[in-house]
């Protein structure tokens, strides 16, 4: 799970240009996603700060807790590294960084607007003489995926599609055997375990910043709550069922979500399913370079409104996806970002009918020069997603 | 998984007092832990902001995305709630909050120092006329657990101890059957699945802010990296094995971590194990009201240093635990917090011998008037934690 060195050298060159334009002497990365993006060091965020100093000129520097030294070495991180012992520390992470940068005396240091007020104050004290300036330099670099990142998203997409298949098969198998249908929580555990196993089978050194594989599973009336957790409810014949799954290889995320019907769909189920499928198809085809996120979102959700389902919309069409499972840009009315080749987006309109069920189909879509390309490919037509009862 | 109403009314009364002292008109909670603590609304943090306004006088107000309205109702949240449609939104979360508070005109609003610079700016713009002031009012309220919270931590402790037993049994069972020993990743999946299943079996409506159950599993040389991820390495006779597990009921966390030896321990394994067990015992007994975190940490780690193992220390004795699996206070040299009854701490000194193995024993310990009380109770003596080979 390691990106080629060429990726990191390209990213650093592009970051240098962005810092030049902004008149910054360097960027101080403070989040696990930014640090992994710029350095290839993957860690799970805790209260122990990790700081990556990326100067416009000269060598980068990584500040980590002592606890992580061997772990960084195991990952093949070659950036100069200094460690502080612990959090909060007699000598803090910020003071350790300040001492290491003392001879370099950067004047203007870019930081992300996601930095907390507390960390901003601690850094400002420890980096006396330097000014911390919020900048979108790295956020903008992450908007368009680099060619070296795409195979990792593609690998995650294959696994995520297989997770959908594993969930479907768990139910189909119970129907064939005539045994009790699984519960929502059992299906969730099964598919997440399946995805995790696949990662470990395929990669020697598994790394991530938040998770390898995750998922929500909800059926029947529960599926009408887009953010509910899986429950102990057992799947029933006639249920609408959403498998909302994600996976990440080297923390490059995808999501793949499908709606299934257990047994022959009713006219009501067909109507909602087909409307959502159509909105997802139209919305996905609209994901083209030159259009704004807001336009694409409207194009997509207008399909649902056109079917008289406006009252059942609970969320936007989608969001950017990359080193975080949700990141900019946002495929929503309030985001005027113009789509460009290399952007990776979820396309996931949903229909939520209180008391009945929810319907959502999500693919991870790469904006290419010639148009959108789905990285996830699980079948989307209703016929393919009926889990048949055995009669 | 719901705390009694008496808990929330007590917390609000105590918060009111803290705001009075600080001259604040209210507190604006901006993190999932603070919101869950003050309101009983549990959600998983995403880019969609949730804001809970807790005025010194008058009624609280919850601002959530439209997506979560039914979910909040399902959880029985009775606080007045307004929703914004989506993130980033044509009307943002911050503007929605600003409109709702316009008639109340609070002057001084307390926020946590964990708030991001970006959110601080958006809130300041939307709440024109109000001043946002960082405060530790809620952080301090969370330092000492309330009596109503303890049963939830105790319930999590029982499950976490059982997870340890389930992991041990997976290996013991393979030894008995003479089948291949499980891999680290298989054990991790097994124990996390076990803990999750128990939660679902015991509670009607499962809620959390980050996770229900989690764990790291590492054996042999891998266990010398305290932050490594489980690998595909298969357990071997002779291995030292760390099961580092956590669980949360209503997001009230505990951790329970044990070191096992597969087969008869060598003299080297006995030495490291016994030193760590002794440090954990001495350090746990030191967790008494009136002592500082720094003193307790030193007392604990001095045991390891006394055994000549100072070079193998990689982290502090422990940390606070509550609605987050790591939270203040920090049982570390840099934290002079004086322990008080009601504080809940991990006690988890570790010994990490590069190339050989790691040893860590962790309990979740409640500071009571009479002294420390372990909520987790899995056996700690070496004899109990030998997983025997069948001969």
UniProtKB/TrEMBL annotation, chains A, B:
Residues 155-369 form the Peptidase M24 domain. SUPFAM superfamilies: Creatinase/aminopeptidase, Creatinase/prolidase N-terminal domain. The keyword DNA repair does not apply. Gene3D superfamilies: Creatinase/methionine aminopeptidase superfamily, Creatinase/prolidase N-terminal domain. GO terms for molecular function: aminopeptidase activity. The keyword Hydrolase applies. Residues 13-142 form the Creatinase N-terminal domain. Keywords: Aminopeptidase, Hydrolase, Protease. PANTHER family: AMINOPEPTIDASE, XAA-PRO AMINOPEPTIDASE P-RELATED. This is Aminopeptidase P family protein.
